[in-house]
Amino acid sequence: MKLTILISLLAAAAAQVSAGRCPHVNPVPDPAPAPSDTATPAPTGGAPPAPGNPDVYYAVTLDQLNKAVPDAAADNYCSLNDRPKSCVNNKIAVDAINKAMTKYQIKRRGEAVAVIATMALESGYWQYNMNDTPGRPGQGTRAMLMYNFVYEYAKYLFPDAVKAEWKGLEFGTAENNKTMNDVAAMVIADEPTSFGAGFWYLSKSTTGFYNNDAALRDGNVDDFKGYLVDGIHTTAAEERITIWNKFNEAL
Ligand SMILES: *[C@@H]1O[C@H](CO)[C@@H](O)[C@H](O)[C@H]1NC(C)=O
């Protein structure tokens, strides 16, 4: 029974990735300034931020993630699927997600649920970090950012290493394909960075959804639909709402 569920989940994920259905297709705005280094780091991990304490970042527990994605709770989750190289289980994912939420100073549960649910869909529950089946060179991270955003994210993370001429590349030639995949490789090289992509996007590349009391309110599915349409420029597809519901219940 459990295996059947996993197989259908994997098939669905593969179909979705191969369909290239990925949201981040809009032109890139000017990147926002880097965050200040003065904020207080997340203290405990696990507990939602105490109301009224603005310096505590949101954190997720392994139990919560296991509840949302039961298949990925297993130690052998990744050896059961055909993406063992890019796949991680919940144990690795939860650590990367919490590091990313600290880095991008995520304090609101509604933001955490929206971004984590979206990354779960885009990565096929942590199996994929590149769109390589059959593939769109340069598209990757756990949020499956399109290349134009992968480029901006790489520049944000590694300003000295990323060259201006890599901006706006289109795939097609062997050289472009390779360069675009090399840029993506920079940002998926470690899990906190690959999982950080969705939070970077929320906090730096879209405006009006991050730290906004009127957007992505806790438990508000209409706010999530607004983020899908106006934040990541996709549709409020039923599969996205179904996954959001799972995370909204579990986190
Ligand atoms: C570059 O990638 C595209 C998309 O996957 C592919 O169609 C094309 O054949 C690739 N170019 C080369 C030279 O391999």
What does this structure look like?
The chain is mostly helical and 251 residues long. The chain has helices spanning 2-18, 62-68, 90-103, 109-122, 147-157, 174-188, 191-205, 221-231, 238-250. It has one domain: Orthogonal Bundle (Lysozyme). The chain is built from 9 helices and no strands. Bound molecules: 2-acetamido-2-deoxy-beta-D-glucopyranose. The site of 2-acetamido-2-deoxy-beta-D-glucopyranose has 7 residues, from helix 6.
Task: Briefly characterize the structure.
Helix content is 47%, strand content 0%.
Assigned CATH architecture: Orthogonal Bundle
Shape designation: globular
Oligomeric state as shown: single chain
Number of domains: 1
Helix-strand category: mainly alpha
Write the SSE topology.
Blueprint: H1 2-18, H2 62-68, H3 90-103, H4 109-122, H5 147-157, H6 174-188, H7 191-205, H8 221-231, H9 238-250
Helix pairs in contact: 2-9, 3-7, 4-7, 4-9, 5-6
The structure holds 2-acetamido-2-deoxy-beta-D-glucopyranose.
2-acetamido-2-deoxy-beta-D-glucopyranose is lined by residues 135, 137, 171-174, 177.
